[in-house]
Design brief:
single chain; 290 residues; alpha+beta; Jelly Rolls; Arc Repressor Mutant, subunit A; 2 domains; 4-stranded antiparallel β-sheet; globular
Length: 290
């Protein structure tokens, strides 16, 4: 996933998209958003940081975190062992077909530190559904009809969310959010396409006929970070495959992905991974031969 508006495509024959994560390596997914509802469920280990619209969560085994449509979010995990998590995307079209008033609601569905006994029961029901979904999805190769069961469980998932976790959305919030997200999407798509160039706040301001002061405030307000940090997040994400899959010198990787010099690349990389790119490359290659 990249730091942008993201289109979610479901698996063939299925109304939802399921991704099972088992990597023990450190990983960072920069801030992004999409119209799909996203559910993160930790089966073992933990997710060190989930950012959602200005709030930060640490998610452990058994924790469920639902991210509403168009919420800006990111994920960060450190190196760990026996980590397994599932991400489920529920497309807007699917839930809207079932519940036509879906534009008027959202879901209050984060189990972390939940104390209310009734809500804890609701979350237990939801966990049972998610476990069944995962088991059925993992057995799809041995059971060619598993997609029928997954589809059935997908409808049950929507039922549980609507029955137990539905709340009214603030008035007009979707209209305002859509207007802002369309502008934000245009800006971020431009950065994604031109991240390797010498981008600046002034250049972007001229590109979108905005003052640099307004663009700066707008970006921080709706993403929680500065334009420069956004650009660097894209550059970092794009540079990662070259770092891990080639022997290119660090300076070559830095310059080809828009960083002005190796020092700048080192600083941005270290802020996320806590080591320099060269150290990280050596550590990961050493682990791969153990």
């Amino acid at each position: 996933m990249e730091y942008k508006y993201e289109m979610i495509k479901t698996d063939e024959h299925l109304p939802i998209k399921i991704i099972i994560h088992t990597s023990d390596k450190q990983h960072f997914i920069p801030r992004h958003w999409h119209e799909s509802i996203e559910i993160s469920y930790v089966l073992s280990g933990k997710i060190d940081q989930i950012y959602i619209d200005g709030k930060v969560f640490e998610s452990h085994q058994g924790d469920i975190v639902l991210i509403n449509a168009n919420a800006i979010h990111s994920f960060s995990v450190n190196t760990g062992k026996n980590r397994k998590a599932v991400t489920i995307f529920i497309p807007y079209e699917f839930i809207n077909a079932i519940y036509p008033d879906s534009d008027q609601i959202e879901f209050d569905c984060i189990s972390i530190d939940q104390k209310d006994l009734q809500r804890k029961k609701y979350f237990d029901e939801l966990r049972n559904n998610l476990h069944s979904l995962v088991n059925c999805y993992e057995n799809r190769e041995s059971d060619p009809l598993s997609y029928i069961k997954v589809t059935s469980l997908s409808y049950e998932l929507i039922y549980l969310l609507l029955k137990n976790f539905k709340v009214n959305k603030k008035s007009n919030s979707r209209i305002r959010a859509r207007k802002h997200l369309e502008r934000l999407t245009s800006i971020t798509n431009y950065i994604k396409e031109n991240y390797h160039q010498n981008l600046s706040l002034d250049l972007l301001s001229n590109q979108f006929n905005l003052s640099s002061e307004y663009l700066s405030r707008f970006f921080i307000k709706h993403t929680g970070i500065t334009v420069l940090n956004y650009i660097n997040a894209i550059r970092l994400e794009k540079s990662y495959p070259d770092l891990m899959n080639t022997n290119y010198p660090i300076i070559q990787i830095a310059l080809s992905h828009g960083f002005p010099n190796e020092k700048s690349y080192n600083r941005v990389f270290k802020a996320v991974y806590h080591v320099t790119p060269n150290q990280y490359r050596k550590e990961q290659r050493w682990k791969s031969v153990e």
